[in-house]
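User: These chains co-purify. Model them together.
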Amino acid sequence: MDLEDDTTILTTLKSFNSFISRPEHPQRLSEHSAGSGILQSQYKRSMELLEAAERVHSKNRYLQLDQEKKQMELSHKRARFELEKAASDSARDLEHEVDRNQELLTQIKKLEERAEEANKKITEQKEANDALQKNLEGLNKTLEERDDKLGTANQTISSLKDEIRELRQKIQNQDSKISAQTLENQELQEKLDLQQRKYQEVSQLCQSLQAAQSSCSDHIIKIKELERRLVFQEQDFAIVKTVKSEVARVPDLEKELKRLRDDNAYLRESRENCSLLKEEVEGLRKKLERMEKTKEELINIELEKERLTEKLHAWENLGQSTGLNIRSDTISKCVRLNHKEKYLNRHLYNLSNIVRSVERSQSELRAELTQQHSKTLEEQKKREAQDALVRRLQKRVLLLTKERDGMRAILESYDSELAPTEYSPQLSKRLREAEDILQKTQSHNAEMEAQLTKAQEETGTLKLQLQTAELELESLKKQQASATDSNSLLTKEEVTILRQKIEDLERERQRLEEQNNILEMRLERHNLQGDYDPVKTRVLHLKVNPTAIAKQERQQEVEALRQEVTRLRDLVRSLQSGGAVGHSQDDTHNPSFSLSLAPSKEVLDLRKQMESSELRNQRLKEVFQRKIQEFRTVCYVLTGYQIDITTENQYRLTSVYAEHMDDSLLFKKGSNGSMQLMETEFSKTLGEMVALHLHHQKSIPAFLSAVTLDLFSRQTTV
Amino acid sequence: VKKMTSTLKGITLKGSAELVAEFFSFGINSILYQRGIYPPETFTRVTHYDMSLQLTTDPKLKNYLTNVVSQLKEWLFECTVQKLVLVITCLETNEVLERWQFDIECDKSAKESSAPREKSIKTIQDEIRSVIRQITATVTFLPLLETPCAFDLLVYTDKDLVVPDKWEESGPQTIDQSEEVRLRSFTTSIHKVNSMVAYKKTESV
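Assistant: Joint model of the two components:
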């Protein structure tokens, strides 16, 4: 309401303002046109407006006062509300505070109780405190002790720390040393690297050196080869010289050859003659032997002849005495005996034939016997087998009947049981099972029976064999027995012969085994040596192989050498025929001789040198001989002794004035150079002079001169 | 460098043929070096079978050996070769002085079935190494070859084999009065190689 009043007031104010402003506008417009009337209206209007304004203003004042009053009332009411609220609030607060008071009181009580308790606790705690304090004191003591210990420990710690400091210093020193050494190491490594580089360079130099050395060695090898070739050439030269010397010897050798061949032929002929003669001698010896034998036989025969002649004479005497014609009788007797013999022989022959036939029939009969025995055995066996079959069949029949009875009984039992209860399915099952079992057992049975029959057959055959063997044994025994009756020796002989045969065969077998071993060893050896069986293997090699190439080269070398040799031989021949002639014939001969100019000159020079040196040698020899001869004669003439050297270090002196040719003095030169007189016949005669000059004066010249004077004094002729 | 197939899957007939041919190549080179048939400066050192061996550098000899070994490899694969023989002949007297013989036994059932056999390459190489070491050691008791010598390689094959070009039939070239020594053998489980050496007896004074 107030607000509406306010708005009306405001709207009225606005309209008033607007009204006021309007007339101002039109006032300005219409200032000049209407003057006085307008002013009066305006003044009226303004007066009315002023009154309206005053009225409005008073209304406004009135409204404002109403409003203020209402506001005052409102505010009063509000104040009352508020006061009431405040009162209620304060009542509530009071209540709250009363409650709080009570609570606080209770709390105070509780707190007081707690305080009491706390006091008690405090007292207790004080007691505990006291105890604790005592403990504390104890602990403090211990603490003090520990502090002391700690102090000592601290001292030790300090000392250890000092040590640690020292050690650390040491470590630092060592670290510094290590660093220094690492530095040295690095330096050394750098040096090493340098050295390695140097080493590599050196190795490279070495390799170059080795290459150079290898090239050097190659050169050396080449030099050696050249030297070898030189040597070969010198050898060839030497060979040429030897060939020359040999060629010089050739005619002599040929003569000797001829002589030797003639001697050989002669010797061979003589040998053949010798052999022929030997054969003749042997033949003659054999003849001699035969002749001697024949002689002996002759002698024996002659003796027999004499005996027989004596017998004859005796018989003839007999014949003459008896007066019977014995000859004819004997002849007839002989004839009869011969007839008898023939008859007996025929008889023997027939008997032997009969015996053989009988033996044959016997053996046949025996064979038939054995066959019959075997047949009887077989039939017996068959019978037994059939008896066994019969027994088996009977057993089977019994088993079957038993099974049938059993099955019947079962069936009956089942039938008897079927009536009260129904067991058909089970029965049928059981039946089927029983049938299966039956079949199995029957099959098993059949197998067993088959095995049995097989075993029985085998036993039967074995028995047969046994019996046949026994029969044979018996027959053999009978044969042996019969044979022992008639021909005991023969069987023994046969046995011995058979034994010998066995031994021989065994020996042969061993021999063959040894041969086999030897052959196997030989085979192995041949295999090692490279033999092969041409039927199964073939040996192949490349056509162009090193050996073939080497052989070809060698052949070429050999041919080249042969050509050279022939060439050199021709050279030598030409040289021998005449070196000077060769000079003039150079143009006409082969160009190969043109090469020989140089050697021929050398050869001539060498020949000349040789001749000259030989001449020199000869002359020197003559000169020496002459000089020696002169010297010896002068010595002989001047000293009067001829001095000859008989053997080494022995000198024979013969005097000019010697009485006999054999008178001589022998002097021997000792190892120390002194001369000693040896005993000769002549020296024995000079014993006094020896004693005087040699033993006393010890002078050989004096002795010799004394001897010459003595001989000179003795000589009779001048 | 060996072929990986033969090391991984076991030994096939082809692998075995290659191994045996390789052994012959190195073995022949070793024998030629040890016996001084060719000058030692014509050989160079190589490493194989975990040992150092000598191989020739002479081109003609190399060519000859490769020809023989390649043909031998074929024959090993066909299992038609029975022996390989290295014959050393003296050139002056044309006598055979030494004979190195290698017998080859081939398991022909490996031809039909192509399943590889279980045998490690390492054991085969160890066996080959011991054989070559023994060959080197035999040189100590063999008589010196003082005269110039040449060698030849002979192959003993089945009679029904077709003779290839450049090959011809030859005699066995056995030694007159020989001493034989059996050496070690090795086997790749398909090919077995037995080695032996025969030399002419030296005349004892």
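The domain at 13-161+168-200 of chain B is CATH 3.30.900.10 (Cell Cycle, Spindle Assembly Checkpoint Protein; Chain A).
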